[in-house]
Amino acid sequence: MKMTFRWYGEGNDPIPLKYIKQIPNCSGIMGVLDQYAAGEVWPEDVIADYVKHVNAADLEVEVIESVNVHEDIKLGLPSRDRYIDNYRQTVRNLAKHGIKVIIYNFMPVFDWLRTDLAREIPEDGSNSLYYDEQELLGMTPQMIVERTAETSGFTLPGWEPERLADLDRVMKLYEDVSQAQLLDNFKYFLEGVIPTCEEVGVRLAVHPDDPAWPIFGLPRIVHTKEQLQTIVDLVDSPANSLCVCTGSLGSNPANDIVDILRTFNGQGRLACAHVRNVKYLGERRFREASHFSDDGDLDMYEIMRALYETGFDGYIRPDHGRMIWDEKGRAGYGLYDRALGIAYLNGLWEALTKGGKR
Ligand SMILES: [Mn+2]
Known about the structure:
With 358 residues, this protein is α/β, with parallel strands linked by helices.
């Protein structure tokens, strides 16, 4: 298992690589070049410089999160072939510089979504990402985009301005796309890119829908165990793998995260995991919690045990943290609470490893 930390790049992430290096057991980052819009080829020389820069801080960059899938691929438009070609080229370019896993998602229009990026946690005065479906029902897609952009102050992954500029037009195009059609388009994408991944030794890892249900009437097909099984079966290759995000799938209490981790790592299809906790506040209403089990509703010990007992040897990282100690930063991606998250996960892992040897 390799412990990593998500990092947004020099000048874009207020957290210096030096600080990440100082987190115990952190071997590297999950990195991104977010200057490229979905569908563009990431140039090899830019990747080379980027990897060199991260390596100079004595950190690895073996995971990229994310190479986004162009909307035309998800929509199944004729222009998708060009974007799939570009995706293949980006995979090749990344592989040449040591990238082993590429995370992506297949969520139409919206990536992850929250109704509040800084909801105060009354118990301790910190704040975290919060979601309330009732609140969302009173909002238009445009309103949530504006609110997210306003509160944040940073570019947020999945909320890149160019992706959302023609929101109305793209929303309209999805009116004709059923879940079955979206799945067909997913298959077409995987059949296009997985052979290239196999050739160059890269694993694609799909990140689940967040929250784990459809929003704004858009089709979504990556949020239950059954759907994940369908996806890994679309193309039967270890290169067609999963990034299980405990918090995303865990937003729906019906998802048994421990069973999901055991099942797919058991099948050899878990390339990486995002581990974080969720606190349920009601029907489709939750907030993010510290990683500590008792602060939320997910059992972090059982989650780490599932990974340990199925011999997980992929990449892991803490996921969103709270904002604590008056830190100013990108919502969900501060230094302090995520570093605490790593320390906690390290402790669980050490106990499992040493206990397992007895
Ligand atoms: Mn995640």
